[in-house]
Specification:
It comes from Algoriphagus aquimarinus. This protein is of the alpha+beta class. Helices cover 45% and strands 18% of the residues. The chain has five domains: 2-94, GIY-YIG endonuclease (3-Layer(aba) Sandwich), CATH 3.40.1440; 105-248, no CATH class; 258-360, Alpha-Beta Plaits, CATH 3.30.70; 391-536, Nucleotidyltransferase, domain 5, CATH 3.30.420.340; 550-597, no CATH class. The protein has 18 helices and 20 strands. α17 packs across α18. The mean pLDDT is 82.
């Protein structure tokens, strides 16, 4: 494996060899990782003006400032390396599996008389992990089977030989009901316990045939020695094992150790089902969604998902069944696209799961959309509004202790925050803490601006406050000549009362109503936005005042520092060299000396 770095303009000099390429932007951040059978051809295709690449790809190419490549022996090795790099760095233009679950494992501990128990944390030094399992139910089924077939201890005792020899342990209830053979008091040899564990390991790997053969041989042995009770007990365990296998049997038992991966897609996403089959039994089935980033082909998406899922579920499959043909074979990956027989049926089963998953996702998306529509329709009904309030704006003031009076406006579109439309306001025309006058000023400024820019007015204006603030907002709207063009309400905090202009009495919406919860959320967001702005402003002003009290530091210097470092905290943490790049070496020395003198004050 060999790594090299190039400038984008040198892409034509890349080798005609399998490998992985990495694109870095101006900040030297990794933005994309790709694999290629021929690095020269693949990387050059991004910079070919006649290639007809899509807008997203062109946007990415404009950001590339440096290319790094790693040569490998085969395209399959490139796939594996690409997967590891994406998993580690999460570049913004690479496809990510949309799956935030932490999967359960079964841990076989590294100790005397090892235990087996479920966990979601993988700490390799603790023992051997089996899984991950696609669901807790699937994991519990395997664990119940193991505990039914073998007597594996569940206690946490230290069963080192010298601890057992001390004789301080006593057998517990698990021993008396037959779930443990009492290794804690020397009633079971570790060599016998380890023999059972070898069969457990085969079951955890999906190899049920080894355990079945063992139980058959032991049952035959006890029957020949006329030990019929022991033979009957083993017969019951064999039946349990066969019943478990029958429930998971999806194909002929002769089909051993294969993976099945199928894909269906639409314009924005791909939906992949991944199955692992051993001895005809389905041991893993997992659905994932991949969001398209650069209009990737189904082949590229399927290979990406396959490699990541095989890695995630620790697959050692000898063969992979796919529902689409690869454009060309990949050395090291044994891919088959069956046309008939049991393998074809496995493809159909996997594809059925992928299609169902796609349908399920679409239904869920529709339900979420319906919920948003339902809430704003309910709000329209509760407030008797002429139109559905799919555009709501809310205002709040903040002037704690009468200093730095500010206001905020937050915007919600279709019931969701539209953060880019949020606005902060410095109060300009009001002297002292006057909430009513401040509200009139900011409402007037907001809608005067919208009128001048010809932008659409909201379908509902919410004022955080009671009748006084609401009346002030109405005055501003009347002066602009837009009063009556959009509904405006006030919401009082104490009893969540809703006031309409001109009405003496408020209305009350059911406390459990989704529409009231939406209004509360909008009001709370406006309050949070105003308070945050006010605190930042007070902090900056306080620090700026302190700075200008230092001989040699004036207002313009303080402004440059705040403009560059963005926050007081970052100025206090900056080194002398960093400060010097903004205000010069002499002033930097003055400021650093002042910081040292006032540290901890």
């Amino acid at each position: 494996m060999q790594s090299s770095s190039f400038l984008p303009t040198a892409h034509l000099t890349l080798p005609d060899h399998p490998g992985v390429y990495k694109y870095f932007n101006e900040e030297d951040e990794l933005i994309y990782v790709g694999k290629a059978k021929s690095l020269k051809k693949r990387v050059s295709s991004y910079f070919n003006k006649n290639a007809g690449v899509n807008l997203k790809t062109r946007k990415m190419v404009k950001e590339i400032r440096r290319i790094e490549i790693t040569l490998v022996d085969s395209e399959f090795d490139a796939l594996l390396l690409e997967n590891n790099l994406i998993k580690k760095s999460h570049p913004k233009y690479n496809i990510l599996l949309r799956d935030d679950k932490t999967y359960p494992y079964l841990l076989l501990t590294k100790e005397n008389f090892p235990r087996i128990f479920p966990t979601r944390k993988v700490i390799p030094k603790k023992g051997t992990y089996y899984g991950p399992f696609a669901s807790v139910k699937a994991m519990n089924n395997v664990l119940e089977l193991i505990r039914e077939l073998f007597t594996i201890r569940t206690c946490k005792l230290d069963l080192s030989p010298y601890k057992i020899d001390e004789g301080n342990y006593k057998v517990c209830l698990e021993y008396h009901i037959g779930n443990c053979k009492g290794p804690c008091v020397g009633l079971q040899r570790e060599v016998d316990y380890q023999r059972d564990l070898e069969h457990v390991k085969h079951i955890l790997k999906g190899n049920l045939g080894v355990a079945k053969t063992y139980f058959k041989q032991e049952m035959q042995h006890h029957a020949e020695n006329l030990e019929f009770e022991k033979a009957h007990l083993l017969k019951g365990k064999l039946e349990s094992l066969e019943n478990y296998q029958a429930k998971s049997l999806v194909a002929s038992p002769s089909i051993n150790n294969i993976d099945v991966c199928t894909i269906v897609s639409d314009d924005k996403s791909a939906y992949v089902n991944f199955m692992r089959v051993k001895n005809g039994s389905l041991i893993t089935s997992k659905n994932v969604e991949l969001k398209k980033k650069l209009d990737e082909s189904d082949e590229e998406l399927l290979l990406t998902a396959l490699i990541r899922l095989q890695d995630q579920f620790q697959s050692d499959a000898e063969e992979v069944l796919l529902n689409i043909e690869l454009s060309e074979p990949i050395e090291g990956l044994n891919v088959v696209m069956p046309k008939i027989g049991d393998k074809k049926k496995l493809i159909e089963l996997s594809l059925k799961n992928a299609l169902y998953y796609k349908k399920e996702k679409a239904l869920l998306l529709g339900l979420n959309q319906d919920k948003k529509d339902r809430v704003i329709r309910q709000l329209q009904q509760d407030l008797s509004l002429p139109e559905i309030p799919d555009h709501i704006e809310c205002f709040d003031n903040s002037n704690i202790q009468g200093t730095n009076p500010v206001a905020s406006m937050v915007c919600f579109l279709n019931g969701k925050p539209a953060v880019k439309e949020y606005r902060h306001y410095h109060i300009k025309t009001v002297v002292g803490p006057d909430d009513f006058a401040s509200m009139k000023e900011v409402v007037g400024r907001r809608y005067k601006r919208l009128l001048e820019e010809g932008k659409p007015m909201p379908k509902l204006v919410v004022i955080d406050g009671g009748k006084g603030q609401l009346s002030s907002a109405v005055e501003a709207l009347k002066e602009l000549g837009v009063y009556g063009q959009m509904p405006v309400i006030g919401i009082a905090k104490r009893l969540e009362e809703i006031y309409f202009p001109g009405d003496s009495y408020p209305i009350h919406i059911d406390k459990k109503s989704e529409s009231l919860r939406l209004l509360q959320r909008i009001r709370d967001e406006a309050h949070r936005f105003a308070i945050t702005f006010h605190r930042n402003l007070r902090s900056k002003n306080a620090f700026g005042t302190q700075l200008t009290d230092i001989p040699g530091i004036g207002e313009s210097t303080a402004d440059r520092l705040l403009s560059h470092f963005k926050s007081v905290k970052k100025i206090s943490e900056a080194t002398e060299d960093e400060i010097a790049t903004v205000i010069g070496a002499n002033r930097a020395k003055i400021l650093v000396a002042w910081k040292e003198k006032n540290k901890g004050a």
